[in-house]
Amino acid sequence: MTLSDKPRVLIVDDEPMNVELLQAYLQTDYEILSALDGQEALGIVYAENPDIVLLDVMMPGLNGYQVCDQIKSSEKTRFIPVVLVTALSGREDRLKGMEAGADDFLTKPVDRLELKMRVKSLLRIKDLQDNMIKERDQAQNYLDVVAVMMLVLDEDNTIKLINKRGLEILGYEEEEVLGKNLFEHLIPDECCSEMEAHLLDTLDHDGDEINYYESPILTKQKEQRIVSWYSKPITDDNGRVTGILCSGQDITKRKKAEEKLKEQTGAMEASVDGMCIMDRNGVYTYVNHAHASIFGYDDPAELIGKSWELLYDEHEKERFIDEILPEFYSKGEWKGELLGRKKDGNSFFQEVSITALDHGMVSVVRDVSERKEVEAKLNQYASELKSSNELKDLFTDILSHDLLNPAGIIKGFTDMLLHDESDESKLHKLHLIDNNASRLIEMIESAAKFARLEDIDKLEFKPMDLNGIIRNVVEELQPQLMAKDILLDMRLDDPHPAVLNPLVDGVFVNFISNAIKYGPSNSAVSIDIMDAGDEWKVSVTDSGEGIPEKDKELIFDRFSRLTEKKKAVKGSGLGLAIAKRIVELHGGRIGVEDNPAGKGSVFWATVKKA
Ligand code: ADP
Questions:
Q1: Does the beta carbon of 446 lie inside 6 Å of ligand 1?
Q2: How far is CA 483 from the centre of its chain?
Q3: Residue range 411-417: average pLDDT?
Q4: Closest by Cα among 397, 349, 396, 395 to 373
Q5: Segment among 280-294, 513-527, 529-543, 555-569 with least mean pLDDT
Q6: Which ligand 1 atom sits nearest the alpha carbon of residue 570?
Q7: Residue 572 — very low, low, confident or very high, per pLDDT cuts 50/70/90?
Q8: For the segment 118-145, what is each residue's pLDDT rounded down to a tens digit?
Q9: Residue 486 DSSP one-character state
Q10: Where in the chain is the domain with CATH 3.30.565.10?
Q11: How many A from CA of 563 to the centre of ligand 1?
């Protein structure tokens, strides 16, 4: 208020004696300022801001009414009490003074006590007024610093007050908003009726109750912000509602974040993979249903607030410390397999990926125990297969070396003995040994050949003429043909270029030798090559027993022997299986049909044309 603690009184009178008198009355309790004319008085009022002004009315220049009027019309000084001190006591003069805004009147000659009392009471009022202004300013300050928008509406929804934050949110200047109707200027049309209902609802509520509501508001740029409103009716001393106080928080960002989170949470909930979010300490803050159920829990809530350690056993925890966490901290993520522990204590294999978040980590877990089981079975099967292959290789090796060699020795010595022997009965026995040794050698050779072919998946091909290959085979089989007096019908005039591997001759050796073997003596065997689009179809027709329908596929299988009679016939039963394999490796087909001309069969195979 003042430098000294005393209130300051400005005494204005053009008569120095009057000033002196009033000063004498007041100086013990007040600090006195004085002026001898209106102009000087106004200067002091503006410069010194006195607590009260005692103003003489009749002065040359600016009179008391004019000075008073000026004091009262300035925002800065209008609360300074002005006492008009006048010799005039007429009603009209008083009215004039009141019009000018005077707070009180004293009539000259001034009574000392009356003066002191008036000044004192006016100063008390001024003090109260000062406090009120201070409180009002403070309230305004509070309104301005709060982080929410504050609006005061009157009964017609006109904006009477708006704080700084409100102006910031809306992008308006104060004067663009004050006095405007809330609904016409700030609320989107489509939301007006709901907002109105909310405000009416607010008025219906008891004074102490706060009513919450969310609604969009339009900024100056016509952008919609979502505001969460808290409204409260304002009442006067009689309890009459005079307006509404609305505080609104701009929750646009929060709403958007909430929506995004909802979307993400929806996706996480729908995921078949287990997903969880942990805080920095590895405590679950979010767990989706899949995650809970992978670990055997019915409800994700059972895991929220628990540590990840609940779901892993000691061995895996050690892995986390030694191996996983160091990598996770250095790279911000980790992927791998872990052994999880279910609620019932059982373990299961899982594929896990952990990624760092700002305040923790997110982890995706997939139960891979089924895949692991299949993998284990496959591994076992592969190792069994490997050992069975090794066994097969061993047998093939034994067949082609260890068995073939002694069989060859038997055959060789038998041939020598046959040559030297003349005793019929011994010769007969030696022939038996010789035949069986030959059969044994042939069986060993074809079994070894078949085993080798089984291991091959690809052959090398080159263009070759089928005619040449077939002619060679026929020449090779000439002795057998002659032995059974078989006539070969073969017309191979035009060349038949095909994509072949030399192994293909095995197919024709088998077909023709079988036709000789299983056909009657003195019969005919024909060899034909037919054009079958991009293939050649080679067929060998005999007039033997033929193949019963049910055996037509079987005879191409390993070791299939057909009739009782075959026992008297040379052959290992692998010839057709070998032929089939060779044809398959050529990308062709093989088969047998009944001889259309009568008895016997037609064995055929196709190969690609060159
Ligand atoms: P192998 O002739 O050594 O027994 P193959 O695999 O060549 O072995 O033949 C399998 C079986 O098919 C033979 O045992 C025989 O019973 C039957 N077979 C093959 N060719 C003919 C044919 N041309 N006529 C009648 N039967 C045949």
A1: no
A2: 81
A3: 90
A4: 349
A5: 555-569
A6: 3
A7: low
A8: 999 999 988 988 888 888 788 777 777 7
A9: P
A10: 462-608
A11: 10
- Residue 571 reports pLDDT greater than 50: no
Provide CATH code, domain 256-364: 3.30.450.20
Res. 316: pLDDT tops 90: yes
Q: Of 104-118, 202-216, 244-258, 342-356, where does mean pLDDT reach its minimum?
A: 202-216
Angle at 369 (CA atoms; ends 364, 371), nearest 5 degrees: 100
pLDDT surpassing 90 at residue 554: no
Residues of the chain with CATH 3.30.450.20: 142-250, 256-364
Q: What is the mean pLDDT of the chain?
A: 88
Contact at 8 Å (CB) between 17 and 47?
no
Ligand 1: centre distance to CA 568 (Å): 12
- Judge if the beta carbon of residue 510 lies within 6 A of ligand 1: yes
Closest CA to 187 of 218, 221, 210, 153: 218
For ligand 1, is residue 544 a contact (CB within 6 Å)?
Answer: yes
Give me the pLDDT at residue 207, please: 52
User: What is the position in ligand 1's atom list of the atom closest to the CA of 563?
Assistant: 16
Secondary structure (DSSP) of 385-432 = HHHHHHHHHHHHHIIIIIIHHHHHHHHHHHHHHHHH---HHHHHHHHH
Residue 7 near ligand 1, beta carbon < 6 Å: no
Class of domain 142-250: alpha beta
Which atom of ligand 1 approaches the CA of 572 most closely? 3
Q: Is the CB of 576 under 6 A from ligand 1?
A: yes
**Among 445, 432, 440, which Cα is nearest to 407's?**
440
- 555, 563, 565: residue to mutate for ligand 1 pocket, most atoms within 8 A of CB: 555
Q: How far is the CA of 468 from the centre of ligand 1 (A)?
A: 25
* Closest atom of ligand 1 relative to the 556 alpha carbon: 6
Across the range 444-465, mean pLDDT stands at 85
- Residues 17-72: pLDDT tens digits? 999 999 999 999 999 999 999 999 999 999 999 999 999 998 999 999 999 999 99
Residue nearest to atom 21 of ligand 1 (CA): 514
Separation CA 69–CA 51 (nearest Å):
17
Q: pLDDT tier at 115 (50, 70, 90 boundaries)?
A: very high
Quick one: pLDDT at residue 563?
47
Q: What's the mean pLDDT in 247-258?
A: 86
CATH annotation of 462-608 = 3.30.565.10
Q: Is the entire prediction scored with pTM above 0.85?
A: no
CATH topology of domain 8-134: Rossmann fold (3.40.50)
Cα 163 to Cα 22, 186, 216, 408, distances in angstroms: 46, 15, 18, 115
Among 592, 610, 582, CA closest to 553: 592
Q: In 3D, which of 285, 446, 442, 460 has the Cα closest to residue 357?
A: 285
Rounded-to-integer distance, Cα 203 and Cα 217, Å: 21
Which residue, 288, 313, 299, 304, is CA-closest to 366? 288
Q: Report the Cα 288 to chain-centroid distance in Å.
A: 13
Of the pLDDT bands very low, low, confident and very high (cuts 50, 70, 90), residue 305 is very high
Residue carrying the six token digits 């005393």: 6
Q: Is 302 in the pocket of ligand 1 (CB under 6 A)?
A: no
Q: Is 582 in the pocket of ligand 1 (CB under 6 A)?
A: no
Flag whether pLDDT at 198 surpasses 90. no
- The CB of 76 under 6 Å from ligand 1? The reply is no
Residues comprising the chain, all counted: 610
